[in-house]
Prior knowledge:
12 helices
Amino acid sequence: MTTPNLRAHGPAGTALALLYVFLWSSAFVPSRILSRLGQPLWVLTVRFALASALLALAVVLLRRPWPSTRGAWLQIAGYGLLANASYLGCTYEALRHLSSGMGAIIASTNPLLLALVAPAVLQEPLTPRKIAGLLLGFGGVLVAMAARAGTQAARPADVLLAFLGVVALVGSTLVFKRLRPAEDLLAANTLQLGAASVVLLPLAVLLEGAPRLHPTAEFLGSLTYLVLVMSLGASFLWFWLLRHGEASRVSAYYFLTPIFGLGLGALLLGESVRPLDGVGLAAVALGIVLVQSSRQPARPLADPGDRLPVED
């Protein structure tokens, strides 16, 4: 995807990049609330359908171009299958029991996993600094799991399911790193969300039966936050970062995801924070910093300008 020459360096760009990472992290709290209602696939189906409809309206009103080829539509739909239906489907299923803080910690392994698979998929070198960062980062996740051993907050099956979601998200990044589609981002985001909703609908019917989503204040508040703040607000923030050349800053702040996630989970959901969490967080943060600061080739793998906006 192309980025205009206009760039916004300095404190404003950094502040907006930090805001985007904070919003991305904050999504785990309402996602956890909705997942505990027992029909996470229906929740995602409704969320994606609403967000896609609102974005479609924006595309029409702003007269943005829709993809012009069948191949582009298929690529965008495939991205929606991986980055939204698969990633968030696994994440929401895991959040039935997994704490939102633990979910954020697992999600923060995204740049670490990208660095791990880059040598085989994109022929990017695995430097000693990257290896050290990978070992520290994944070790930090194990420490956080150990801190919750014997509880329902980090059951191995839920951790594995959440990690499979991250694998799907990484897969979507790799696919679009190779394809590098040049479609309008607003229209593409509309289509990928719509495709994810269509894919999840039969799965929700098959696995969860008829929808039993009661419009309580908790349900409506969480869903509204995810649709308006995340699918619309955070997406438009992403567009600003992408168009002004500051999106590349975002990956440098991924280490804040588990910090924000654990803090918000403790503050809003009363989730416990254990002494070992500090050790795990420090290891994850240092691991991501080492991976991000390692010398990169001319076209880095995790440059957010090479992929569509990611939902959470």
